[in-house]
Amino acid sequence: MENYTMEGRTYRYYGQEAPLYPFGYGLSYTTFHYRDLVLSPPVLPICANLSVSVVLENTGQRDGEEVVQLYLRWEQSSVPVPRWQLVAFRRVAVPAGQETKLSFQVVAEQRAVWAQDWHLEPGTFTLFAGGQQPAQKTRVPSEVLSTQFTVTGTARPLHGC
């Protein structure tokens, strides 16, 4: 085998074709609402980690569990990258009518790209938080929030951080 590209070979690189049952898909007896997606800092140095918080509210009449998912998208990269990449997820139980604030860390390694070795690149990134994948065609009663952040500095090997 001489062609090691992942394009067209895994769900992350299928292009516009959506999987029949994407990660996190399932039925629930309640509904959830996401709000207050906050990134800290919104501009970070190349080797820094990103803190993320989001509020999840159970807007239904029953207690329920939600799989909160964070995805990262590179807006421009020097090499092919996935449409978006899952960087964190957590199953959370939320009583009916209650809300909870969740905190996550997106570490620098999760922004690394492969080009003969793992390296970090500056640029603009989009972070998605919600109960499903971004732009998911098989809809579930949950939305996806998104916001952008910027990484500054010069490209460097991951082991140089």
TrEMBL record:
Its EC number is 3.2.1.21. It catalyses: Hydrolysis of terminal, non-reducing beta-D-glucosyl residues with release of beta-D-glucose. Pfam families: Fn3-like. InterPro entries: Cellulose_deg_GH3, Fn3-like, Glyco_hydro_3_C_sf, Ig-like_fold. It comes from Ramphastos sulfuratus. Belongs to the glycosyl hydrolase 3 family. Keywords: Hydrolase. This is beta-glucosidase.
